[in-house]
Amino acid sequence: MNAGVRGKTVRAVMVLAHNEASHIVRCLDSIYRAEPERGFEVFVVANGCTDSTEEVVLTYAKEQPGVNLIQLGIADKCNAWNVYIHDVIPRRIPGRSVYFFMTGDAQAYPKAFSHLERALDLRSGALAAAAVPFSGRTMHYDRAMIQSKHGLVANLYALKGNFIARLQEQNIRLPLGLEGDDGLIGALVKWDLEPRKDWVESRIVSCGDAGFTFESLSWRRWLDWKQYWRRRIRYARRRYEVQLLRTRLKTQGIAGLPASVSDLYGGVDTCRVKWAGLEPLFCWLAKREMRRRVP
């Protein structure tokens, strides 16, 4: 591995993957192509895969020893993130100043990692840096929203090592089953892990030079229509989960984080419905799913 190229620290990247056999090679290729002169240690956290994702990664790792496969039987992105933060990092890659995170369906744009790292170095008080989309039908809108709202999306972002160390010290874990994992991570950053204190937008720095791309859904493929339908329901559920979590965290602080987000679903009927276009339909479907999962 080119780990010690020019004496630079190897960058640690988590790649979250669930059934990404058709995308994962392009994702991994993009990491190494982004900055060929730098070393990377990549941890593909495959969670609950039922396709050939794990086999593809193992084959890739034979040619690129910087790639490591973490196999989890549970199909849960929040559980995967928790395992990486609290198990993989302390055992395998402790003490880094910056940690990078990606999803297995995304591809990093050239120099994206350097841009994220530099943004964190230059912005005093920043705890996270967010990349922006360089593809997609709503690319310009999404990019503007991330930059104006200091948003953070799971496709590609970076967290400071001292922030992760505090997550570990306080044993802070994402609730299992949570749809908006990136939204909660961004909120925890802006609260600096203290939800009853000030929300500071500048703790996330949006980096317009750091980009990622992804494959958009195609209206010509029936499976993509099914995926779109399920995505709309998940997004509606995400909004409800945000409402329920915000209320809990504002009253109870970080200790109010539930082990599973379904622990909050009993309060779903208090959540507001978004009355626009087809939204009421997806809100109703999301609420129905949530009611069925009340413990």
The biggest beta sheet is recorded as:
8 strands, mixed
Q: Which strand order do you get reading across the main beta sheet?
A: 3-2-1-4-7-6-8-5
Structural class: alpha/beta
Q: Estimate the helix proportion, in percent.
A: 40-55%
The N- and C-terminal alpha carbons lie at a distance of 48 Å
What is the number of strand segments?
8
Q: In the CATH hierarchy, what is the architecture of the largest domain at level 2?
A: Alpha-Beta Complex
What portion of the residues fall into strands of 2 or more residues? Answer: 15-25%
Question: What is the tally of helical segments?
Answer: 9
Order of helices and strands: EHEHEHEEHEHEHHEHH
CATH superfamily of the largest domain: Spore Coat Polysaccharide Biosynthesis Protein SpsA, Chain A
Oligomer: single chain
CATH class type of the largest domain? Alpha Beta
CATH overall fold name of the largest domain: Spore Coat Polysaccharide Biosynthesis Protein SpsA, Chain A
- The low-pLDDT segments are 1-7
**Rg of Cα set:** 19 Å
Shape: globular
Mean pLDDT reading:
92
Q: What's the structural domain tally? A: 2
Descriptive notes:
The chain has helices spanning 24-34, 53-63, 77-92, 112-122, 139-149, 161-169, 181-191, 222-252, 279-292, and strands at 11-17, 40-47, 67-72, 98-103, 106-108, 128-133, 156-160, 204-214. Strand 2 (40-47), helix 2 (53-63) and strand 3 (67-72) form a beta-alpha-beta unit. It is α/β, with parallel strands linked by helices. It has an 8-stranded mixed sheet, with helices on both faces.
